[in-house]
């Protein structure tokens, strides 16, 4: 079993290949989307957005089982308990075959109702909506069938393997999509490439997971009753979290399509793509860290774990603030340059709402990561239900009253009502065994710093002419890079967390120099 390495080595290796995957995906995704917009237009963009959201809603069937079972693998992996790992992996495989079957059935049941999701000028497109939808559905099903192999790789802290495979398959997908868009201008060919490359990805994951851990073969023993009981408990809790997460993340585009129009949903999808790209960078970081955090919580003291939480949370707070400021200042001038038209712009008030939603979401990432790795899904199981119900009801009500911005305000309100305060409380009470006030004090200071830095940065950018010029945009990019970096440095350079990351960087460079000297 080729798995032993220190947590730091795993984090560095996973981060390196994760970053390569992210950069390649980012560059190619924007290039493909630009071509898509210029060749197929906003009606097809809306169709793509709606079908992606529908499949996102069907993801609710997964019920967070993957997270619960991967969490259960951390301890047996640390103890090299092969039989337990084998049993967990067999259970995972069985569960995901059932999930794939349910998603397939539900997906087929939805076919007669597709006409209610597609409105406005998009509904007049002369395409076979059912055929396109079935291709999206096939892509989702294939993903589920490889989930147990992918989870094994993650549990062994070898995210780099998944990153290498994903880099290869997304590169192939985007290159082929570029070719078919230019050569055939065909939405059918554009979509059919997705399940084909997803199938290739699944095959490569299966091959590599077998190489990583060849012992996980043959008939598995029955799980220990205590482990099985713990998994069932966590699955129930994670199912509630999954329902909420799916509703909150996937309903915005659907509500826009149903209440406003599918074309507007397509226009919003450009903003969503930018937000999702940044969110994916933070997701990459948490994915890289998650298995190591799980291992740390299973083997280290509460004091050490709390210290590492503070370090990582402060780093995320600075990066989240930096990205939020950049979004507020740059997203409006970027959209016309990217799409070639001001017709793809939303109002600035909507942009502010989207950016606040982004800030609140990413600021939760570290807390949720630690909470899940500590196995505390059960402790806040009712929180996501409250969030989901609030999000749907308030978003629909405010959309009727305020239009498009009401949908985003509904998401912000639902976040503030439940997860915003419940998640840190559960983590501090049950994992760190201390008052949550320390968390809120730092959260408030971080947010105030971001508001101040953001106000100054936006004020400087506002002085520049409001033109769709690439040179003015580059100037604003420079301002949004230099000003926040300098000001964040002034705010944090004396903190314990800043000194910790300086020491980490020094150690990395020292090891590299020693390695070069030895060679």
Give a description of the structure.
The chain folds into two domains: 1-231, no CATH class; 300-509, no CATH class. Helix 7 (147-155) packs across helix 9 and helix 10 runs antiparallel to helix 11 (262-299). With 519 residues, the chain is mainly alpha-helical. The protein has helices at 7-40, 42-58, 65-78, 82-109, 114-117, 129-145, 147-155, 159-184, 187-212, 225-260, 262-299, 302-339, 348-362, 365-373, 383-402, 404-417, 419-432, 437-463, 470-492, 496-518. The mean pLDDT is 84. It is globular, with a radius of gyration of 23 Å. 83% of the residues lie in helices and 0% in strands.
Q: Largest sheet, described in full? A: none
Q: How much strand?
A: under 5%
Mean pLDDT over all positions: 84
Please provide the ordered H/E string of secondary-structure elements.
HHHHHHHHHHHHHHHHHHHH
Number of helices: 20
How much helix, percentage-wise, in residues? over 70%
> What spatial form do the alpha-carbon principal axes imply?
globular
**First-to-last CA distance:** 29 Å
Low-confidence stretches: none
* Overall number of strands: 0
Radius of gyration: 23 Å
Number of individual domains: 2
Q: Which secondary-structure class do the elements indicate?
A: mainly alpha
